Amino acid sequence: MTGRTGDDLGSTESGLHFQVSRLLGGAAIAAIAATGALVVMLVTDLPGPPPPPGPNGQLPPPPNLQALAIFPVVTGLFVLAWLAVLVAFSRDQILRRILQTRGGVPEPAAIERDTRELLADMRRELAADRQRDLADLEDRIASLTSEYGEQRETDGYRNGVRRASLPGQAGVDIRSIRRVPPGD
User: Fold this and answer.
1) 94/103 Cα distance (integer angstroms)
2) Which residue, among 97, 91, 99, has the nearest Cα to 22 in the 3D structure?
3) Distance between CA 47 and CA 60 in Å, rounded?
């Protein structure tokens, strides 16, 4: 065995590091399955030459075109699956380069600490947002209640004036619900 540094592990002459991640493995399995489905469809389901004419010069039966309707779907799955393999492979290469420039993979304890700090910050922000929303809601409810009360009082006053103006209601005293402070 020879001693190699961590940066040297898994590298090749071309500089590509081929390590199968779960995403890449799943995409590769889907791509291989889509390729198999496309090959099977090409070999078995595509219609052949048109059938010969029927007896007594009748038209031949129409060919089965159901396979031609499914062919674009299978071809699309084939293309998308191989595109997913390409994207996953590129993603893995980019992540590997980023980790190399940052000095390797961070320790799990550091990741856990950062996660706890992020969660604590998020909880504080949510609590502050909740308090702010509650204060806004209380202000809005107070203003709506006040507006409703004013509207009811105004409607009552108008109704009283309207009734007082009816014939036979002379001398009716109409007063505001609110008391006028002394001295006004």
Assistant:
1) 14
2) 91
3) 14
Provide the residue type at 146 as one letter. S
Let me know: does 73 contact 41? Beta carbons within 8 Å: no
CA distance 84 to 30: 9
- What is the C-alpha to C-alpha distance for residues 100 and 102, in angstroms, rounded to an integer? 5
d(CA 174, CA 167): 16
Q: Which amino acid is at 86?
A: L
- Distance (Å, rounded) from C-alpha 170 to C-alpha 160? 12
Token pair in block for residue 150: 């004013």
Q: How many other CB atoms are found less than 10 A from the CB of residue 77?
A: 17
Which mean pLDDT values do the consecutive 10-residue runs of the chain (184 residues) have?
A: 46 59 91 94 76 75 75 93 94 83 68 85 95 95 92 83 72 63 66
User: Under a CB-based contact definition with an 8 Å cutoff, are residues 90 and 99 in contact?
Assistant: no
Q: Is the pTM of this model over 0.85?
A: no
